[in-house]
Structure formats: C-alpha cells, structure tokens
Amino acid sequence: MSGISAPTPPRPVAPPPARGMRLPVTVVLGTILLDAIGIGLILPVMPGLVMEVTGQGLAQAALWGGLLTTSFAIMQFLFGPVLGNLSDAFGRRPVILASLAVMAVDYVVMGLAHTIWLLLAARIVAGIAASTHATAMAFMADISRPEEKSANFGLIGAAFGLGFVLGPALGGLLGEFGTRAPFYAAAVLAGLNLILGIVVLPETLARHNRRSFSWRRANPLGALRGVRSLPGLGPVLVVFFLGQVAFYVYPMIWAYYGRAQFDWGPGMIGVSLATFGIAMAAVQGGLIRVVVARVGDRVAVLAGLAANAIALLGFGLAQAGWMVFALIPFAALGGLTGPALQGIMSRLAPDDRQGELQGVLSSASALATILSPLIMTSIFNAFAAEDAVIRLAGAPFLLSLVLVLICAGLFAASRAGRAQP
C-alpha cells in the first residue's frame, strides 16, 4: 500500500540540544506516568463499576473486568507501531499532544459511562491513546547522545514504575468518593499535562530524518519484519521480549503469592509492592546512569539479568516474609536490563526509524502483558492448589528464572553481547 508522504522542507532543521529540555522531558515523563496510571487506575474500582453499569453480580463482573483489561493491552499491542511510525513521519510533538487530548476526553467518557459497551469502547480508545510509550521513547532517543540513551530510557522506566505504584493507589483512594472519581481526576491530570505540553514541548525529530508513513510498516508484524532487517537486532529483540514475559510475574503473581506463602493481608501486599516500585524507580531513574557510564550497556544487561536471577530464585524458594524484602533490591537491580537493551537497540537503528523501533518494543511489551498473566497464573494455580502434587507457591518465579537464564545465554551469544562495552 502506498504511504502518506510527510512534507519535505527546503533545508534540514537540527533537533534542539538536550540542554534546556527539562520541562519538555517532564511532559514526556508525565505522559508515560499517565499511561501507567491508566493501566492500574481502574483496578480498585473495577468490580463496583462493572456491577453498577451491568446490574450483574461479582462473578459476572470479573469476566467483564478481564475483558476490559485485555482490550487495553491488545490495543497497545496493535497501535504501538502505528503511533511510532506516525511520529517518524510527522514528528513526536503532534502525536504526544494528540494522545494527551484523546486521553483527557476519554477519561471523562469513562467517568460518565452508564453502559458496559460504552465503557468497553472507552477502554479500547484509552489503550490506543496510551500507546504513546513508543513516541516518548523516540523523543528520548532524539535528544540523547548515544552514550546517554540507556540512562534516559531508564527515566521512562522509572516513570512507568512510579505510575505502576500510583495507579492502583490513586484508584483506591479516590474510589472512596465514588466509582467515577478516579476517572475525573485522571482527566484533569491529562488535561494539565496537555496544556503544559502545548506551551513547552518542542519538536525533536529533524525534518530531514522524517520518512513517509506506510500502513504496511505500521502493523506489529510489518514493523517487526522491518526492524529485524537491521544487523544484530533480531536476537536482542528476542531477549527483550522474553525478559518482559519474565518481568510481569511480579505484578501478576505478587498478591497471590504473598497471601498463599506468607498469609499477607492487603496492607502488607501494598507495602511490599510500593517498596518494589520505589526501588525499581530508583534504579531506572538514577542508578542506571552511573552503571552505564562506568561499565557500558553490555555489562549492565548481564548484571541486571544476574541480579534478577538471584531475586527470582529467592522468591521461588522463600519461606519467610522478611526474605522478600531482602530480595527486593536484587529484583530492582534487574531493572538495569530493559533500558540498557533499549539503548543498544536504539544505537543499532537509524535516526529515521527510532519511532518504528520503539513501536515494535511497545508491541512486544504489550504482548508480554497479554501472555505472561495467562502463563504465570496457570502455573500458580497448578502448584498452589490444595490438591497439587507439589505445593510451591513460588513456582511462577522459578519459571521466570528459566526465562532469564535463556535471555542471558541468547544475549551472551549475540553480536551485541560479544561486543566490547
């Protein structure tokens, strides 16, 4: 299919320097924060809201809740490459601002929805708008020198991790004022970020680095075929995807594992999750900058995989709650891996394909959020049931350990893994 051509200017315009980008970066990080908040915001009020709009009981509401959550992830999988490619054609600024505007309106619609079908439609639109992760990563790639990319990608990871903690907390707190209150608050936050973005967000993609938009490249499979053609990128993409599948054992299993293994209540589960989220944000928002500067991306990837392996083995076999808190620093150090991998891949991709690459990575993450819950909860059910032949509530963490070890082997054997830091 023929593409939509982006306008070509008479002369190239260089992207703005990184210096003086604090406010624009704040807008981009705020967008990622809102994307992450949007994932967890609905969870605390989901049962009451669905029962309210359907008039059905809790068991039926759980089925609708699963559909709402899955539809959000599927839209991110499908539309990450679309928005990434659009930003390669028309720039990062219009895509980010348009997504924020849609997000603000969509949260209002969810707050006003009185039928399950309108709520589902709004959740689908929310998933599309939240696919700006790819564009935000491309923005960071635009403003970063090669040696800064991993550290700046870590800021994106830290913002997402913070949103992962704040989303359910905000939803639960505001849910005390009614099932609609969290959505109105999120709409206000998105609106304020949009206004700030209109004022301070520059365009970071030089016009001579733009390329025409093509639907053939803007679907997940087409985009994957495109970026896999870049030398050395294929194995690193596989490592990134398997690492994401392994990582999602934490949000999916943590609450069930804590209750089954240590008889934790909601309070202790919340405290442990918050501790995990804060530690992860500290690693990806700060420590990674020091580690990459000292040892390089390659060693940072391997160190993150080693730390995560220690944490997963410990979680799988832990017999006391204090052990979980002792292992959280190792799990957080595992957060070195993702940004360092993204830094490696960003350097392997040319400037006019950063959005496309980040779109593929966004789709890979979304696909992991679809597959990992199915896999990890099935393993937990098999090993934590009363009649299980071997009772081991930590079995999903041991499966993730196997995936992490596979990642380490694949990366060490890849061109990027053999290169000097």
Commentary on this structure:
The chain has 421 residues and is mainly alpha-helical. It contains 17 helices and no strands. It has 2 domains: 19-201, Growth Hormone, Chain: A; 231-421, Growth Hormone, Chain: A (Up-down Bundle), CATH 1.20.1250. 77% of the residues lie in helices and 0% in strands. The relative contact order is 0.15. Residues 1-19 have low confidence and may be disordered.
General shape: globular
The CATH architecture name of the largest domain reads Up-down Bundle
The CATH superfamily of the largest domain turns out to be MFS general substrate transporter like domains
Q: Report the top-level CATH class of the largest domain.
A: Mainly Alpha
Walk me through the topology:
Elements (H helix, E strand, L loop, with lengths): L21 H20 L4 H9 L3 H33 L1 H21 L3 H14 L3 H11 L5 H27 L5 H20 L19 H9 L4 H15 L1 H14 L3 H52 L3 H13 L3 H12 L5 H31 L10 H19 L1 H4 L3
Helix pairs in contact: 1-6, 1-7, 1-8, 2-3, 3-4, 3-5, 3-6, 3-15, 4-5, 4-8, 6-7, 6-15, 7-8, 7-12, 7-14, 9-15, 10-14, 10-15, 10-16, 11-12, 11-15, 12-13, 12-14, 12-16, 15-16
